[in-house]
Structure formats: structure tokens, C-alpha cells
């Protein structure tokens, strides 16, 4: 039998082979230090859990909820945007709750994409940014992830050479996986370009609160005058409040896009469990010292990872934001590629990372390292990797053409 059409459009899942090897190693008793998946390990703040438990015990909270998000939650998200970015949102028309930003992107793609529509996606990028539109029947053209002149050159080339012309461009800053950041001047230029050429801007701001330059917190694209005419921004509770399993996010901004997303969602879901939505509202309305504590923890982990990995013989560039480091493959392993190198780290160092190829073809020369283990475990990972690198000349002479790659 033939493969289903939409499944056929998806490439093999790059992470599957690495995940299978990781599971096999653990089944064999290996203590794998998992720096692969960006799965926050920090506890959800207690006041959020208290509100969740309190609401679960109330009558009628087990019924179907609101697909667009309960009113109190949408008001809380609008208030957060007002405090954090100085952006005024109408919670009735410009805010919608999603089951995480990933679901939001996938359903937005279903809402706005006609077969053959062109969408501009950074490479490397979080997989749903591209595959959400591929599954919806769209066509992907890639643009650079770095917010510089080449980004706009790529936009101009896409407009001149794409038939039909692109309907949207995806932004993601702080970027997953590269940790690149953008400033308001870049956003101003993107919005001006989008308005001039009549396409939408879909911004992923999931890592807005994980930054290490306290004087320059990441901005929102919606801070730019006129952005509401063309832009929607996706955020998530997963990283900001360490609530990944509760699956709450938002899309905010352009009314037409928010309305289209709401229409699709009304056919697909009844919204998150009401107690989770109430707890999310309590998080947004409550004290924000927990956000600062979370950020400080990631900051310490980042510094330890950069220092200890460099000492182990693998220099890792210091990210200025996000919960990831984007690390080039050690020179002697470049010929292997990111998937085989990631497998080697599991086999030889008991450390799991995410192969860069899983984030697009332009990620092949890198791996993504997530700051999701404690400081002691990060140091242990560095020691394991140091021993592996030190012995690589002897143990891998049949696997890696070391002399040729130097």
C-alpha cells in the first residue's frame, strides 16, 4: 500500500535514531545525561500548583472548557503584554489560548495555508515552523536565521522568484536552536517590508524570559507601530513558568489571524483543562520573582557548560539568550555529520544532545545542547566528553578520518 500523502511529505524524523539509541543505552543500565530535548527540569512554582489543585477540587471544572481560553486567562495574557512590552491587546479579539505554541503554529498553518502557498522559514529552525506548513499543503523557502542584511536579501529573492509570492515569514527570537537574538530595529524593518509587500509575520517568542543581558530583554515584534496590521506572536508558559506538561500557550496580535486560528481550533479542541487555564492565569497575574530565579538558574548552567566543555576540549559559543547552546561539531568529527556525532556521544560519553540536522539542512554542522540538567550533571557531562575526546584518536581510527579532517 502507498504511504499516506501528508506522511509522504514529511522527511524521516532525524531525532528518532538518536532517541532509539538513548533508550537502548538506558535499558542497558547506562546513566545518560540528557541534554537533548528542551524539556525544562525546574519545578513549577508552588503558587501555580496550589491554584491548580484548588481549582481541581471545585465543582464543574471537569467539564469542557473554552477553546479560545477562559476570559480570565486571556485578560491575564493581555496584562502581561502591557507590563512586559508596553503593548495594548484586546483580550476578546487579539488574544487566543493555545495548547502550547507548537499546537498554535500547527493550527495557524491549517487556518491560513492553501495548497502551494509559499512560507518563508529560517533554517535552522524549530521543526514545527516548517513542518506545520508542509502538513497544511504549503511550500517552504528558507531564509537565514541571523537577523542581518542577508535575511532581507533572502526576503527580496523569495519575493522575486516565488510563484505565488510568499504569504508569511516566520521569526523566532531568541532563536531555537541557535539562540540568536533580534532587536527592535530589525523588527521595524521586517514589519515595514511585510506591510509593503502584503504578507504576514508569525513570530515565536517562546524564550522571551530566558535572557542573560539584563539591560536588554528580548522585545516583541508587536512593539513596532503598525505590526498589528500584519503580525501574530506566539508565546508559551512552558519555559517562562516551567509548565511544559500543562500545555498552555498563546497567539496574540492581528485580529484576522487570531480569528482564523480560533475558527480552526473550534473544530479541533475544547481548550485545555479548566484548572490548568486557571493556574496559568494565576501564573501571569502572580509574583514574577520565580521568573528571575529561573533565569538565574539557566544563567549559571550556561556559564558552567561553556567553561567546562571548553576545558574538556570542545569550545561552545556562549549564548546570550534561550535555554540552549548551539555548538559546532569538533573539527575532527565534522565529516561524520551531526547525527552520527550525536550517536557517538551517547555510546562513548553517556551524553545525549540534539543533532543539528533535525532543525534543517543548515544545522548539519552543529548540535543543540539544552540546559536541562543540574550543574553537577553538566560538569559530569563535560568530564565524560573530555575523556571521550582525549581517547578518540585511539578508539575511533576506524570510524573517523581524524587525520584528514584536521
Helix content: 40-55%
- Mean pLDDT, as a whole number? 93
Spell the H/E element sequence: HHEHHEHEHEHEHEEHEHHHEHEEEHH
Q: What is the structural class?
A: alpha/beta
Low-confidence stretches: 400-406
Explain what this protein looks like in three dimensions.
This protein folds into two domains: 5-43 and 290-390, Aspartate Aminotransferase, domain 1, CATH 3.90.1150; 48-285, Aspartate Aminotransferase, domain 2. 45% of the residues lie in helices and 13% in strands. The protein is built from 15 helices and twelve strands. Helix 2 runs parallel beside helix 13, helix 3 packs antiparallel against helix 11 and helix 12 packs parallel to helix 14. The protein is globular and about 65 Å long. Residues 400-406 have low confidence and may be disordered.
Brief rundown of the structure:
This protein has helices at 5-9, 14-27, 46-56, 71-85, 100-112, 127-135, 149-161, 184-197, 237-240, 255-268, 274-285, 289-311, 338-349, 375-395, 402-405; strands at residues 33-34, 95-98, 118-123, 139-144, 168-172, 200-204, 231-236, 249-253, 324-328, 351-352, 354-355, 366-370.
Amino acid at each position: 500500500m502507498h504511504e499516506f500523502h501528508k506522511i509522504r511529505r514529511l522527511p524521516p524524523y532525524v531525532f528518532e535514531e538518536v532517541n532509539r539509541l538513548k533508550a537502548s543505552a538506558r535499558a542497558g543500565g547506562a546513566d545518560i545525561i540528557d541534554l537533548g530535548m528542551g524539556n525544562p527540569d525546574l519545578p513549577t512554582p508552588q503558587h501555580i500548583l496550589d491554584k491548580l489543585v484548588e481549582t481541581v477540587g471545585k465543582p464543574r471544572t471537569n467539564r469542557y472548557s473554552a477553546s479560545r481560553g477562559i476570559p480570565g486567562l486571556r485578560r491575564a495574557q493581555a496584562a502581561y503584554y502591557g507590563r512586559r512590552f508596553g503593548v495594548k491587546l484586546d483580550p476578546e479579539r487579539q488574544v487566543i489560548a493555545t495548547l502550547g505554541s507548537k499546537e498554535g503554529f500547527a493550527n495557524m498553518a491549517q487556518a491560513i495555508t492553501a495548497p502551494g502557498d509559499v512560507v518563508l522559514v529560517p533554517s535552522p529552525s524549530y521543526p514545527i515552523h516548517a513542518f506545520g506548513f508542509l502538513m497544511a499543503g504549503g511550500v517552504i523557502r528558507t531564509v537565514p536565521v541571523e537577523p542581518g542584511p542577508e535575511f532581507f536579501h533572502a526576503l527580496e529573492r523569495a519575493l522575486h522568484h516565488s510563484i505565488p509570492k510568499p504569504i508569511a515569514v516566520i521569526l523566532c527570537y531568541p532563536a531555537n536552536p541557535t539562540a540568536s537574538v533580534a532587536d527592535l530595529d530589525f523588527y521595524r524593518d521586517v514589519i515595514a517590508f511585510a506591510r509593503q509587500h502584503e504578507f504576514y509575520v508569525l513570530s515565536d517568542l517562546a524564550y522571551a524570559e530566558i535572557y542573560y543581558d539584563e539591560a536588554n530583554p528580548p522585545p516583541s515584534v508587536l512593539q513596532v507601530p503598525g505590526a498589528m496590521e500584519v503580525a501574530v506572536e506566539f508565546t508559551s508558559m512552558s519555559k517562562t513558568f516551567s509548565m511544559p506538561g500543562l500545555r498552555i500557550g498563546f497567539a496574540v496580535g492581528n485580529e484576522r489571524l487570531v480569528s482564523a486560528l480560533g475558527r480552526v481550533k473550534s473544530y479541533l479542541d475544547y481548550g485545555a483543562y479548566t484548572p490548568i487555564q486557571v493556574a496559568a492565569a494565576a501564573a501571569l497575574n502572580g509574583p514574577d520573582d520565580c521568573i528571575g530565579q529561573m533565569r538565574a538558574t539557566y544563567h549559571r548552567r550556561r556559564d558552567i557548560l561553556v567553561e567546562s566543555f571548553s576545558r574538556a576540549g570542545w569550545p561552545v559559543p556562549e549564548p546570550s539568550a534561550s535555554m540552549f547552546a548551539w555548538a559546532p561539531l569538533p573539527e575532527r568529527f565534522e565529516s561524520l555529520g551531526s547525527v552520527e556525532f550525536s550517536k557517538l556521544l551517547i555510546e562513548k560519553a553517556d551524553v545525549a544532545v540534539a543533532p543539528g540536522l533535525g532543525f534543517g539542512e543548515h544545522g548539519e554542522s552543529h548540535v543543540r545542547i539544552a540546559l536541562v540538567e543540574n550543574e553537577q550533571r553538566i560538569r559530569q557531562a563535560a568530564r565524560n566528553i573530555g575523556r571521550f575526546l582525549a581517547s578518540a584518536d585511539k578508539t575511533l581510527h576506524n570510524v573517523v578520518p581524524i587525520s584528514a579532517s584536521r
